[in-house]
Amino acid sequence: VSDRGRLVVCCVGLAGTAALLAAGVAGLPDFGNYAHRYGEIVSRGSMAERHVANAVAGVTYDYRSLDTLIEEVMFLAAVLGVALLLREHERHAESVDPVRSDGLRLVGLLGAGITFAIGLTTIAYGYLTPGGGFQGGVIVGTSFALVWAAGSFRAFRQVAPERLVQVGEGLGVAAFVLVGLSAVAAGAAPFENLLPLGTPNTLLSGGAVALLNWSAGLAVSAALVTLLGLFVEDVVEPV
Amino acid sequence: VTALQLVTLLLVAAGGTAAVFTRDPARQVAVSGIYGLVLVVLFVVLQAPDVAMAGIAVSSAAFSLVLLSAVVKQRGRSGA
């Protein structure tokens, strides 16, 4: 096939794809123009039935907690996989510490503290305002990344001892499972929300949603710190 | 589609294209981080704050860090 022939075939294909794409996009409903019963039911039900102000949290930690459990286990499996892959080589005791600028250290560590606080707030109020265990957990993890980036790997390990982080991750996932199973023990369906629902729009609301949200926050924070530790260890001490 | 949504969508298209056409891996990490941030803006514009929060953390921080450590490691290898 000559170059010219290729170009013709390519242009015909591209034009066809573009036409299909344009036709498809033109037929889409406008943004925010949502018409499906599930969304309506959830956004009304999460406040009325569960006292959860953030309907998204109502879905992830109540109506579809089982899906969230599966996601959490997948995340745990992914972290374990990375650990298995990166743990092959021997680790060295000493690491280099390339950050010499005091200004960079100061700004970075201040940023780490602020990020950590934002992460905790995002977890804590996840079922009242946008946010939640996953989002906040990743923000908490990022604050530890700043400790490494602006400080040193040793500083990172001091604020996040490996064993403590692993225990945190295990506790987070275990707490999530236990909340789900305790409903079964009480004779209900797994993850059925049996706890007192509390006052709407306060921290004491949502019953089991709060517990599941916080345990997911712990699990995700710890998983992210574990991942970060593994990657950084691999970078700081090359094979 | 409002003007704001249109502008943000165009920015997303530009960001994605820029990330693809950046050849140097270390620069590409930075550009894809910015692309992630533009996506976050799109989510906010489309009124999906929960997704935006996850996006801030994952696409502009965690993802970049993982990529960056891979780039650093690769450099260490080719330098040695």
* Low-confidence parts of chain B: none
Tell me the total number of β-strands of chain B: 0
Query: What is the chain-wise order of helices and strands of chain B?
Result: HHH
DSSP strand tally of chain A: 0
Query: Strand content of the residues of chain A, in percent?
Result: under 5%
Number of helices of chain A: 9
Global geometry of chain B: elongated
Low-confidence region ranges of chain A? none
Cα radius of gyration of chain A in angstroms: 24 Å
Average pLDDT taken over every residue of chain A: 87
Largest interface between protein chains, with number of residues from each side: A-B, 25 and 23 residues
Radius of gyration of chain B equals 15 Å
Order of helices and strands of chain A: HHHHHHHHH
User: What is the averaged pLDDT score of chain B?
Assistant: 86
* Oligomeric composition of the shown chains: heterodimer
Largest sheet of chain A: none
SS-based class of chain B: mainly alpha
Q: Please give the largest β-sheet of chain B.
A: none
Number of helices of chain B: 3
Using brief descriptors, characterize the structure shown.
heterodimer; A: 239 residues; 9 helices; 72% helix; 0% strand; globular; B: 80 residues; 3 helices
Structure, described:
The complex is a heterodimer of chains A (239) and B (80). Chain A has 239 residues and is mainly α. Chain A has nine helices and no strands. Helices cover 72% and strands 0% of the residues of chain A. In chain A, 37% of the residues are buried. Chain B is 89% helix and 0% strand. Chain B has helices at residues 3-21, 25-45, 49-79. The radius of gyration of chain B is 15 Å and the shape is elongated.
Reconstruct the topology from this structure.
The complex is a heterodimer of chains A (239) and B (80).
Chain A lengths: L2 H24 L10 H14 L4 H9 L1 H22 L15 H23 L8 H19 L1 H7 L2 H24 L22 H29 L3
Helix pairs in contact in A: 2-3, 3-4, 3-9, 4-8, 4-9, 5-6, 6-7, 6-9, 8-9
Chain B lengths: L2 H19 L3 H21 L3 H31 L1
